[in-house]
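TA notes. Do not distribute before section.
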Amino acid sequence: MNHPITSAAQGNSLTPPTATLFGNSVSKLVEAQPDAQRKRFKDLLMFEERLRWNASMQQSQRRLWMGILALLSLTLMGSGYFLFSSSSTSTSTATTTLQSSNNLALYVFCLASLLLILFFVLGFYRSRLRDPLRFRPSLNKVLKHYCLELGAKNNDLVFSRKIPVAFADSYSQYRDKLRKL
């Protein structure tokens, strides 16, 4: 790839940065746009993709931690049920086996209880499960000042009515054509 400064010094024409990133078919699309609008579209697209990535990562991390919390809760309930519902039998070999399994159930119950308490005390519930739910509303509150909003279904930027319709439509076309490539 040619360096822009050395290319200009040799007299070669500079290609738009998006042409080197996405291929030649995009360069034709980009060349059809005026330079100022192309830069705005490129910046908006990079901003939108970063927001989409953040939203998807937070959702996947939230699902992971919900699974961990559910597994921990099920382990606690299962070991508690086994520990407190076991009844003693009259044979000595069954009693020895039952007592060793009761000891294991007691250890699992204590460990699961401790981990569940630490999950809430150390703030994992707040930071891993509750805060990702507030990401989109707080982001939209900030983007509102720029007449933008992050859409709920497709994680696309949605322009408010204050933005000219022609600009919003041309950006949507630009974004769709780049995503198809």
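Switch to the second chain here.
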Amino acid sequence: MAPFFRRNREEKERSVERVVEVKTVGDIPPVVETRKLTGDGELKEASVKAYKYARDDFCRYFGVSMQRGEGNRHFFIRLLRDIGVDVPEEALVDSKALTTAIAESQDRVDEKSRPRYNAVRKLVSIYLDFYETSRFSSGEQISGEQLVERLMDFYNYLDIMKLYFPDTGTGRGGG
């Protein structure tokens, strides 16, 4: 008599594939677009867009905004003063005064304000070295490679997963 229920004694092989998508600073839209523009020789446009992306992402990340009619330098001075950095008024027109104020206050910034201070410092660097240079000169002295490096360095101070990949691997939805 044949058994009513047959058990398949042969083990079936199961193959499970897992695709892991690595998210890096190089994957975010501002870096991808900046790299493309610099590769196409559009250094002036790359500098302007890179700074604007970085500034907008800084604002989103830290929950701040530029005030109506506020210029970039006013914005930097306000941010720095909010975290206790003494910035002289001449920093509005003198890049050296702005960078000196940032450098001299490095040891005086408290731990709570340190992430914002570092991000502002990087943002000011992109602004002075690339944005202003491209806006107010021929832009030929800008290095596309250095621009991409500085932009990636800036984004290393922010949580790019929170900004650009909110639904993946952070415990908030997705997975």
